Structures are given as structure tokens and as C-alpha cells.
Amino acid sequence: MVNFFPNNSVIHITNGIIENITSDRGNTLVTVSYVDRSANRRTEQTIRLVIGNNTVIFDENNNRVRPNTLTTGMTINAVVSSAMTRSIPPQASAYLIRIVRRPISDNVTVGRILDIDRQNRNFTTISDGNPSSIIRFNVPANTLIFDRLGRPMNFSGLTPGLRVRVRHASFMTASIPPQTTAFEIRVI
To answer: Same structural domain for residues 97 and 110?
Structure first.
């Protein structure tokens, strides 16, 4: 394979999971979580990819597709610029994105909220008091959240101890606890 980029000018992301998609000033911003296996370590990373007019995107069949084909929960491989912002998460230009797998379906988990990280918009649940059932749910801004009466509520209204039904992506990271993206949260 021919390498069109000088050494250390790009980062290769393998099997990244799309967590969130937004638009800003004509660019599509895609937040991706992935496992960085460099330097003999495995660390979970999150990066926001800036998809512009020069970004090339391929589907699973190597057909070129538009940015609006990308959806939350997709697994992708990407080649991105190593020059990135120092923001959290860091932001970098995407040169190439290849869709590896699309989310098949979503699942439902019922559990009690253990803790909430408001800054990173995620929370952890446990089902039936079983420690092996602990899951961390990442909550993008477009996640629907409803109170006990079915009325919309804000993420800030969730508190530890609440029992919730979470409709989420079928994929989960291999981390401890496993993580996934919440599509809908209902207090029950």
C-alpha cells in the first residue's frame, strides 16, 4: 500500500464507534471513541473528526458516500490529521473514513442509576444489584429523556437512585464497565 502522508502526519483509527454527529459552519463533526493501541498500551480515546469537502468516505462495499450516510453507532476506520486541538475531546481533520459496520439494532436495559458524570454526559446503571450488569451510557445531546409521566426532561434531571429504561445501541465497548450510546431514557 502506498503511503501518501509523511511519517507521523496522520493517525489511523481502527474500529472506532460513532458516538455523536453535529454540524458546524458547513462541516460535519463526528465524535468517535476508539481504543488506542500505540506505545504498547491500550487506552480508550475520544476524538471529534471534522469532515469537510476534502474528506473521502467509503461504505462497506467501497462505494463513495456523503457525510449524511454516517450515523450514531456505526463502526468506522479513519485516517485523520495528527495536528489536533487541545480541546476535550480533541478535534482533528478527517482525510478518509471507511464504514466497517452499521448498527444492527438497539437494545433495552432496565436498571438503577449508580452515578452520573454531568461534564462528560454519561451515567452508570446496575440491574438487579448484579455487579456484572453495570453499564456506562454515553448521552449525546439528541438523546430523548422522559420523566415518569412521559414528559420530556433534561439530562440534569437524572439523579443517582432513579430506575430507568434505556434504549441503546447494540454495540458495547470491551471496557470495564462496558459503554454504549443511549438513544432514549425513561424514568420508571
So the answer is: no
**Residue 5 counted as domain residue:** no
Q: Does residue 142 fall inside a structural domain?
A: yes
Residue whose C-alpha cell reads 452499521 in the numeric block: 102
Give me the number of domains the chain comprises: 2
If one counts every other C-beta atom within 10 angstroms of the C-beta of residue 159, the result is 10
User: How does pLDDT run across 64-89, given as a tens digit for each residue?
Assistant: 999 888 988 889 999 999 888 888 88
DSSP string, 123-167: EEEEETTEEEEEEEEE--TT-EEE-TTS-B--GGG--TT-EEEEE
Q: Do 152 and 175 reside in the same domain of the chain?
A: yes
d(CA 75, CA 103): 8
Strands 144-146 and 179-187, by their bridges, are parallel
| Same domain, yes or no: 20 and 93 | yes
pLDDT band of 119, cuts 50, 70, 90: very high
Q: Is 65 exposed, middle or buried (0-12, 13-18, 19+ CB in 10 A)?
A: middle
Cα angle, residue 103 at apex, residues 77 and 123 outer, rounded to 5°: 95
**CATH, residue 32:** 2.40.50
For residue 36, is it left (φ>0), alpha (ψ between -120 and 50) or beta? beta
Inter-residue contact 181 to 19 (CB < 8 Å): yes
